[in-house]
Write a structure and sequence with these properties.
With about 325 residues, this protein is of the alpha/beta class. The chain has two domains: about 1-130 and about 295-305, NAD(P)-binding Rossmann-like Domain (Rossmann fold); about 130-290, 2-Layer Sandwich (Dihydrodipicolinate Reductase, domain 2), CATH 3.30.360. The protein is about 25% helix and about 20% strand. It has helices spanning about 10-20, 40-45, 75-85, 115-120, 130-145, 175-180, 190-205, 235-245, 295-305, and strands spanning about 1-5, 25-35, 55-60, 70, 90-95, 110, 125-130, 155-160, 185, 210-215, 225-230, 255, 270-280, 280-290. α4 (about 115-120) runs parallel beside α9. The mean pLDDT is about 95. It comes from Phaeodactylibacter xiamenensis.
């Protein structure tokens, strides 16, 4: 049995992580840490877990009691936490922040997109979980990059649900602003572009073209719907063959023969990819649940790989029709 600890347990990603781990056949949750909620019942904050767990948040982490540590803190805080706390070397770490996604000689975290680096993740001790937008967009680009077929500028239009902004309320997340509304933010400069470019160049080292990314805030709680297009001589049938071959061993990524909709992935760890051809332009639709395949579900997928488990263990979550 794997003993797991969670640091920063009060937010959305931690809540989803708890929901998965409570029902994981090979995991026992040892403790959940939160500075802001210490002493409270976990189910009092993550109310959907009422009757599922009787854990309480605690102020301190207890590294000696765990095999794996999930860091669910805000961006920038994981690096500070690890510099201030001595986590035993034998404890594996999965960080859900952006702090270690850029590969560097300054740290030993492996970028944790299983569809790209499954074998490296299996041998790692520390994993940097990918960003949600980055995951969805990479699912659209990596099969082409592997075959050296990103030969023109890439254009990406993606819409994310409000949970992508985290639990803390802000001017652009509260219901009265977000409902019946849509807006672009961080046009062409979103922070996930760095990790997307890094991954693309792992497969196609000479790629030096633009990835023009327009992120949008959607008026729904969860999910990311991405449409990507580029000019190419690649024919639709060959593109489909390349995508199906690339994802043949991936338990959560599926190539849809028909134009999909976002509800097919919400509340699951799935990624769905759909290809369409328009007079020299290849359109790639890709979608995920931002809190699962884009965060906590992928973190558990990485944990399974770290400990030699079935990659899909505890993650066969089913979507809702409505």
């Amino acid at each position: 049995m794997i003993n797991a600890g969670i640091v920063g347990g009060a937010g959305y990603t931690a809540g989803e992580l708890l929901r998965i781990l409570i029902n994981h056949p090979d995991v026992e949750i040892a403790w959940v840490q939160s500075n802001s909620q210490a002493g409270k019942a976990v189910a009092a904050v993550h109310t959907s877990l009422l009757g599922e767990t009787y854990l309480q948040f605690q102020a301190e982490a207890e590294y000696g009691s765990v095999d794996v540590l999930f860091l669910c803190m805000g961006h920038g805080r994981s690096a500070s936490f690890l510099s201030e706390n001595e986590v035993p070397e034998e404890v594996r770490i999965i960080d859900l922040s952006t702090d270690f996604r850029a590969e560097s000689e300054d740290h030993d975290f492996v970028y944790g997109l299983p569809e790209l680096q499954r074998d490296r993740i299996r041998l790692a001790t520390r994993v940097a979980n990918p960003g949600c937008f980055a995951t969805a967009i990479q699912l659209a680009l990596l099969p082409l990059a592997k075959n050296g077929l990103l030969e023109d500028h890439v254009h990406v239009h993606a819409v994310t649900g409000s949970t992508g902004a985290g639990q803390a309320p802000s001017a652009t997340t509260h219901f009265s602003w977000r409902n019946n509304n849509i807006s672009i933010y961080k046009a062409f400069r979103h922070q996930h572009l760095q990790e997307i470019g890094q991954s693309v160049r792992m497969l196609q080292p000479d790629f030096d073209l633009d990835i023009n990314f327009l992120p949008l805030r959607g008026n729904f709680p969860r999910g990311i719907y991405t449409s990507t297009y580029l000019y190419t001589d690649l024919k639709a049938g060959k593109a489909t063959e390349l995508f199906e071959e690339f994802y043949a061993d991936s338990p959560f990524v599926f190539c849809s023969p028909t134009n999909p909709d976002l509800k097919q992935v919400v509340n699951t760890n799935k990624g769905i990819v759909y290809l369409d051809w328009h007079e020299g332009k290849l359109l790639i639709v890709s979608m995920i649940d931002n809190l699962l395949k884009g965060a906590s579900g992928q973190a558990v997928q990485n944990m399974n790989l770290l400990f030699g488990l079935d990659e899909a263990a505890g993650l066969r979550l089913k979507p809702s029709q409505f």
